[in-house]
């Protein structure tokens, strides 16, 4: 097997509870937290809209979405803009409010293990030998579907 199949570059995204683990290719950009239009209605985890590169992008709170314990609002939040995976017309990106700067992590086959079962918005909790906490791999397609069901994103 080639190295490309043996490893993946990822990001560990800090949250108040368990951090997220995302592949680098899922992330478009990390930007300062600038909510351009707060949510007037919708689910509690939908915070509103940010303006990013002249595009209106929905912003979610992954801590609320994942049911993590309530925490103080982040001191210096950031918006992590993600590439949408659902293929909906007019919705190429979604954003998450995160607590700080994600850190790079090389994920090597054989050094990552399942650590529980999937849930509504989590594809897989995982453990890595050199990480103290269980990491959550979010189900980005399910998150986009929930945004569509809430009327935030266009239906397919």
TrEMBL record:
Gene3D superfamilies: CheA-289, Domain 4. InterPro entries: CheW-like_dom_sf, CheW-lke_dom. It holds the Pfam family CheW. This is Chemotaxis protein CheW. GO terms for biological process: chemotaxis; signal transduction. Residues 7-149 form the CheW-like domain.
């Amino acid at each position: 097997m080639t190295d490309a199949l043996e490893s993946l570059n990822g990001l560990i995204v800090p949250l108040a509870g368990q951090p997220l683990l995302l592949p680098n290719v899922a992330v478009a950009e990390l930007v300062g937290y600038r909510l351009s239009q707060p949510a007037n209605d919708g689910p509690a985890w939908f915070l509103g809209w940010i303006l990013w590169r002249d595009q209106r992008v929905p912003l979610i709170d992954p801590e609320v979405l994942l049911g993590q314990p309530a925490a103080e609002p982040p001191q210096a939040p950031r918006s992590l803009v993600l590439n949408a995976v659902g293929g909906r017309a007019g919705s190429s990106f979604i954003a998450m409010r995160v607590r700080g700067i994600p850190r790079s992590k090389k994920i090597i086959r054989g050094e990552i293990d399942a650590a529980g079962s999937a849930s509504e918005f989590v594809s897989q909790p995982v453990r890595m030998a050199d990480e103290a906490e269980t990491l959550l791999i979010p189900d980005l397609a399910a998150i986009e579907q929930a945004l569509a069901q809430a009327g935030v994103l266009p239906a397919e």
